[in-house]
Amino acid sequence: MGTVACRVLYAEPLPEDLQGIVGEELPEEWQLDVVPTRDREALLQLAGGADFLVAATTPIDREVLAAAPGLRHVQHQGVGYDNIDVPACRERGISVSLTPEGTTTGVAEHTFLLILALYKNLRRAEAQLRAGGWPVWELRSRSFELSGKTLGLIGFGRIGQAVARRAAPFEADVLYYDPFPPPPEVEQALGATSRTLDDLLREADIVSLHLPLSAQTRHIIGARELRLMKPSAILLNTARGPLVDEPALVHALTSGKIAGAGLDVFEQEPAAADNPLLGLENTVVTPHISAGTADAFRTKMRAVFANLRRVARGETPINQVPG
Length: 323
Ligand code: NAD
Known about the structure:
By secondary structure, the protein is α/β, with parallel strands linked by helices. It has helices spanning 16-25, 40-47, 62-66, 86-91, 104-119, 122-130, 158-167, 184-190, 197-203, 223-228, 246-254, 276-279, 294-312; strands at residues 7-10, 31-34, 52-55, 73-76, 95-97, 150-154, 173-177, 192-194, 206-209, 234-237, 260-263, 283-285.
């Protein structure tokens, strides 16, 4: 069944190669606008004609909604929707959906990238080799295997479970903490064991965050939690920066309370050049790219437009935000 012409506003500035991928999924007759910059005025102006809005990190707040009288649906191209004012959308009868397709795999794989980079001192080994060194012995006492270690997952939804699935072939043990645990058969199939948050922090060699940011979870990892971790443990954050109290993390990393951190997200993004976490020896940092692959983007766009077509046909969109 065809759909009537609709206007889609992509609320993130996109490089041309990615615009091409979006264009491939755009139904005939539909119009695509892409905000040219992060300038708020451009977004507000283009929102005026939009039926559908696709967003990633751009704040979709009351001001944007007021500028978009014809808006019917907001599609987050990922799953972390703390940038969208969902109650304000609901008041206007605007549906809000997520796009788990293409997100989960990238973040789960990135988690292992960070673990292995920290465990094998990748940054130092590579820098020394490129500088003419050959550090075969120097890093040995500070390099580790994932096999036999205990991975503690905070948040055991799509991504947490995908990480657990990939931990099995690495022969790591998996603990998790989640106030809304999955059914016992899922836990059993993934070989994961539930713990309280404090017990997980005490027992895990690797603590990895896979929960949403909300008023309740902001700074879920602070000075107290970092003190509970083993001095040999590493912390990974591929979820949202404000889940971690950054000054407390810097202190833990510089005073030997924990051994290292792998961070894809920061309290403030883009991260400031003088953010101390970027300068520490025992961190591995990436600029919020966990889910940022060409593979994921194609998968996401296919799912995004499948959902927009659903709405255009008058059907209920899938993957609406809970609540
Ligand atoms: P999900 O909704 O499938 O799973 C989240 C889990 O966290 C749920 O099981 C929920 O019960 C649990 N949870 C909620 N409150 C908790 C708490 N206080 N303590 C422990 N667990 C709690 O979401 P997902 O697809 O697994 O994604 C998880 C998060 O990862 C997203 O919210 C997003 O912020 C982040 N993310 C980051 C990137 C990136 O590029 N870095 C990409 C995708 C997602």
